[in-house]
Amino acid sequence: EFMNITKALADSTRIRVLLALRQQELCACQITELFGLAQSTMSKHFYLLKQAGLVDCRKDGRWVYYALPGKEASPAVREALDWVQRSLAGDPRIDEDQKNLKKVLKCDPADLCRKQCAR
């Protein structure tokens, strides 16, 4: 578990994903749009975060939603998430992500998905 967590936390995009999920569950297409990366790249990030237990996911029709784990998360996962949030509170890049996330949330997920599939 420790190795999976540290591997997942060893990438700035995965850290930024975790911090984007602080407030709410997000669709994979919303997160992909936020970071402007290819779907295949984001898929790898999602896989590592899920393998580490740092995110939960659920499928609803064709949409896949990610969220921070609930109370069922292991103590190691809860501590890692708390540490990330404390360590990066007020970081300018994270603050910018939050501003950009507000713009992304105004978009229809179906439109985001079509846009990403066209790339």
Strand order, main sheet: write it out: 1-3-2
Mean pLDDT: 94
Element order, helices and strands? HHEHHEEHHH
Head-to-tail CA distance between termini: 35 Å
Strand residues, percent: 5-15%
- Report Rg: 14 Å
Derived structural class: mainly alpha
Task: Please tell me what the overall shape is.
Answer: globular
Main pleated-sheet profile: 3 strands, antiparallel
> Helical percent range?
55-70%
Q: What is the chains' assembly state?
A: single chain
Pick out the low-confidence regions. none
Please report the total strand number as a whole number.
3
Specify the number of helices.
Answer: 7
Question: What layout of secondary structure does this protein have?
Answer:
Blueprint: H1 2-8, H2 12-20, E1 26-27, H3 28-35, H4 39-51, E2 56-60, E3 63-67, H5 75-87, H6 92-105, H7 109-118
Antiparallel strand pairs: 1-3, 2-3
Helix pairs in contact: 1-4, 3-6, 3-7
Short description:
The chain is mostly helical and 119 residues long.
3D architecture notes:
By secondary structure, the protein is mainly alpha-helical. Helix content is 62%, strand content 10%. The protein has seven helices and three strands; from the N terminus they run ααβααββααα. It has helices spanning 2-8, 12-20, 28-35, 39-51, 75-87, 92-105, 109-118; strands at 26-27, 56-60, 63-67. A three-stranded antiparallel sheet has the order 1-3-2. Strand 2 (56-60) and strand 3 form a beta hairpin. Helix 1 (2-8) runs antiparallel to helix 4, helix 3 crosses helix 6 (92-105) and helix 3 (28-35) packs across helix 7 (109-118). The protein is globular, with a radius of gyration of 14 Å. It starts with a helix and ends with a helix. 28% of the residues are buried. The model has no long low-confidence stretch (mean pLDDT 94).
